[in-house]
Batch of 4 targets.
Target 1
Amino acid sequence: MMDFKKVAMIAAIGFLAIQIGCKSKDDDPKKSKGDSTGELSDADKANLYDKVWYAQASGGGIDQEFLSDGEYRQAKSLSGSWEWLNKGDTMSLVDYNNKKFKYVFDEITSTTMKYRTNLGGDNFKNQVVYGTTK
């Protein structure tokens, strides 16, 4: 005959296995695969709009804004435009000099954005991190 501790342990393991198996994909935060697969939701993308983003690297970088009307601003005075490509995680941008480039977003939250770019020959290799505070 099994004692109470063994029965309780078997029941706990079974319960845990059921919980793990029933976990919804929606329980995980959505992160982009960084390849235009559309893994970022409209709600994720909305976190990007209408705020100033500051480079988090020690060397700094230019402040950026993505206005919800499609305007892209650098340093609050240099305007361009942006649009999402294929409803995915890739944004096409045109800066104030009419230079075209792309950002592939890896993650967007209300306070942090992480992306890779083809600007300056980077070819989407290095991730850049921006935040809503300096």
Target 2
Amino acid sequence: MKCTGLILILSLMTATCFAQRTDTTSKGVKTKVVDGVNMTTNQNIIQNFSKSTDYTTLVNAINKAGLVETFESKGPITLFAPTNAAFAKLPAGELDSLLKPAHKFELSNLLTYHAIPGRVTAKDIARNIKEHNGSAVYTTLSGSKLSATIDANRNIVLTDENGGQSIIKTFDIEQSNGMVHIVTAVVVPKKRMI
């Protein structure tokens, strides 16, 4: 009986030692598990998101748009990062078209519309919404406006210039060069003529 109890205690201790933590700190470096991948505060946006199979479309699009240096820069930048599933919600053929060299400007405009200058946390966004009577407006790296509100379910909702909406589903993923929030849909700026 004592032996069985000891084995049970040892197995529980072993399981606890190997349990995955969502936020850890090691020598000043924080780690957050995002969609099964460890993202650390000592790596930049590109380094962290290149590790995940859920963001291959985003990383590929950043490469095709020639924006790798932007998202590897010192920043700080806050990125509203769409998952592969979010990109899949675009109208049929739109993403394939955007990834072609002839549409590099449009792709760059779309991706920089998902980024704002500074290290902006979810708490900062919520405070800004409250201070501006329920709707905060941000100027993105593309120069276009993106608004944020809080819905009835207490979600932060981003609304693009066309009325399209995306919910922030994961908050405050710290990067060495900024902050990332995961969004449920791609936000689209108004078409600009060049």
Target 3
Amino acid sequence: MHSKIPTSVPTLEPIFRALTGLYLVLTPDLVIVDATDALLQQTHVKRDEIIGQHVFHIFPNNPDNPQVDSEGSVHQSLQHVLVHKEPHNLEMLRYDIPTENGFEERYWNTTTIPIMNEFGEVQYLVHEVRDITDKVLIDRVHQLRQEQLNLLTNATKAVAWEYDIVNNRMTWGEGLQEVLGYTPEEMGPGGESWDSRVHPDDFEEVQRSIQQALASKQSTWKGEYRFQKADGSYAYILDQGYTAYDSKGNPIRTIGSIIDITQNRDTQEALRESDARFRHLLEVLPHMAWTASPKGKVLFFNDNWYSYTGMRPGQTDGWISAVHPEDSAMVLTSWHNAVASGSSFEIEYRIRHHIDGSYRWFLDRGLPMRDSDGNITLWIGTFTDIDDQKNQGDYREDDRLESILRLAPVHLCMLHGPDHVCQYVTPGVYKLYGNRNYIGRSARELWPELESLGFFDLLHEVYTKGRTVYINEFRTQIDDELNGKLRDAYINFKYQPLFDSTSCVEGIIISAIEVTSLVRARQRAEALAKGES
């Protein structure tokens, strides 16, 4: 007897939910439509609690780990799919999962594909995630063990250790006796022997630091303290460790290494004295002065800066708010280009005086300091007041700047406030969007046709999250001669938040550069390679 083969189309909902993979179905507005049972189980949520909710409301960032912007990475990936209507993959993403006891550290590989309707519009997003937490943690352990091996190979005074937290069992490497003078038997098997040998004046701070790292589920810890050697003397040591946690977030094992840095203490003290002398030199300069990290983050302003701008002494974030709004986009672009290329930085712009609100012209010069290998270790710069010369006509920067902006390949647009009101555009923007009355109008007034592409959601995301977003190789049409004759082009866009003196976002800088020739060259190369195969 044969069973009858069904001829009707089955309801796909139970089939989808029973899939073994971890899947979410989202609307273009990122509202959850459905999820597989496997995903619900892995992420500790219930179906009736998440359907109809925004995905980032259900899966927010881990507030205990603010340096990891998981939500931003996923949002950028989803926006890529919506804009380009093509799948997008994130190879490895940390995205912690909320539980009853806080957040659980998890790592994922994600793929999002668009589901199109008959009009070629994105109707749904299918978001697949694969849990790779175990692989990532195992790779970390292997990496740390390799780093330990390299450390022990290169260091003359180092010892490796491993602590089984669950069983209170300490294991020491072969360098223990050479570095500290003890045998493993003399140290004992438990962690108590370590406690008793930390200098009494350092013990409380070291313990506090370790407990704080464990409470916040940090994977790495580092500390410097004094440790009693077998001969009764104390050595200054650098102790570094990596902690592994179980699936419930409980610490289970720590492995690390100890380096005797006693001989380096004099060198460190000399470096601190040198740094103090350097800062004193910057303070006595008659000009405003600054320093920045190799990556461009401002580290220091001298007192002259704070006296002139009125910023809170010691504050370094939000310095761009003291710059004239018409100059800020140009300043940021020039500074970022200098940091990227490692070349000297020189630019003239206006800075506001906090007492009367007036602006004076300054020449800002910055030079990179390099080590013996040519790597940048610090940026140093000064501001020279050139306002009198500018007013006397010795400088003709406006005409020169306009010429540069007309010929520059990068097009800039600066938007201000939550309504994204346009304050500044370069001439190249007219080639992209035509002759519109840009200044003083909101983004929605200027570009209503971009709403369907998620443009205003993107602006809202950059403004509210303070996060830079990139959209590369966006296909559009531009009017080079402003005569109505359009041509196809590919543009790389960058949306960057502009911060005020309180480190709050006050606007957005949009930069666009055409990459048509690069895209077409790559396409030709791919076509040739395909033909040869």
Target 4
Amino acid sequence: MMSLNKVLLIGNLTRAPELRYTPSGTAVADLRMAVNRNYSTQSGEKREETCFLTVVVWGKQAESCGEYLDKGSQIFVEGRLQTRDWESKDGQKRSATEVVAERVQFMSRTKGAGGPGGGAGATAAVPATPGFAADEQHGGDDDVPF
């Protein structure tokens, strides 16, 4: 049986990236992203709804996100959905569905992009870092919901 888990998003960061490192030294960045959907009702009224998502970025891509992105930056994300479960400090079972980025492309002015060629519309893409051990992906954040 075939299956597919692929996510493509364009949106804006709602806060600066949160960059941290696993105990083995692998960079991981958490991005909070807003994606808008514009539509018209049957009566012709225009509406907009916003979906807020957490995007997890690993390796060199994570470091680039931490260095060049800031609140409001527009990005394109290609990745997959992943649900993770954990138990909080007070014993409650928790879960979160996140987008694990395979590729992040910077689509708007980014912090530190004030030099030549770094104006609005400047883009950069960092290739995905291949293969991470499953224990590295969640090291040290067992009680943190995102």
